[in-house]
Every structure is written in C-alpha cells, then in structure tokens.
Design brief:
Blueprint (H helix, E strand, L loop, with lengths): L13 E6 H13 L8 E4 L4 E6 L13 E3 L19 E5 L10 H20 L2
Antiparallel strand pairs: 1-3, 1-4, 2-3, 2-5
C-alpha cells in the first residue's frame, strides 16, 4: 500500500493501544504486506495490550473502535539503540533497532480492521 504520509523517526511518537490478540494479528498482516513495515511495538507485562508507536499528531484524528491513541509529546519515548522500555511494566515486542520508524497510521488502521474481521470469523467458527 503506497501512502503519501512520510513516517518520521520515532522520537516523539504517539501510541496506539489495542488488545493483544488484535495487535498480534495486525503485526502479522503488516509484515505480510507489500513493502510496509511495522514500527516499534510495546507489550504490557500482563499481556493484555500492545502499543504501536505512530507519528506525532496521530492521536488528534484517531477513531478506530477498540483502540486508543495517546499523545506523548516525546515524553519518555526517545528511541536510542537498545533502549529500556519507555513505560514501566512494559517490554518491547518489536524493539527500536529492528523497527526504527513509526508505523504508518493508515497502514495500521487497515491492518487493525482486517485483524478484527479475522478474529470475528475465527470466533464464529467455534
């Protein structure tokens, strides 16, 4: 998917938080996509949520049901080689270095929608 959004280095990113199951599906969907990359992703120690780092300003227009987007203004999210997770009680699923750029919010929105549909379909087969 070719987008016109320039995805910046992740030094003042917003964070999109989603349930873990949907987030893991979205990571797989993005990785299987044509040339799209997923940026750094956090997971909480309880295993309940994933946090995708997205470009600053994303929170202002984020409206994907089942997720939240939080502005950080760069507080605690400076990405340097081998960083400690920026939030206490979290760890990196995809650390900076393996994924240096923020995830494109257009790509993430599409992947989260597809993931939700896949989960609904899987759950209806039980």
């Amino acid at each position: 998917m070719d987008t016109s959004i320039s995805v910046p280095p992740c030094d003042a990113c917003d964070v999109v938080t989603v349930p873990t199951r949907q987030g893991l599906e979205a990571v797989d969907i993005i990785r299987r996509g044509a040339g799209e990359e997923v940026g750094p992703v956090l997971h909480d120690d309880g295993g309940d949520t994933l946090g995708f780092l997205v470009p600053p300003g994303t929170a202002a227009a984020w409206d994907v049901p089942g997720s939240t987007c939080t502005e950080t203004d760069g507080r605690g999210l400076s990405i340097v080689p081998e960083p400690e997770p920026p939030v206490e009680g979290s760890d990196w699923l995809l650390p900076p270095g393996e994924a240096d750029l923020a995830t494109d919010p257009v790509v993430l929105r599409a992947a989260l929608g597809e993931a939700a549909r896949l989960i609904r379909a899987a759950d209806s087969c039980r």
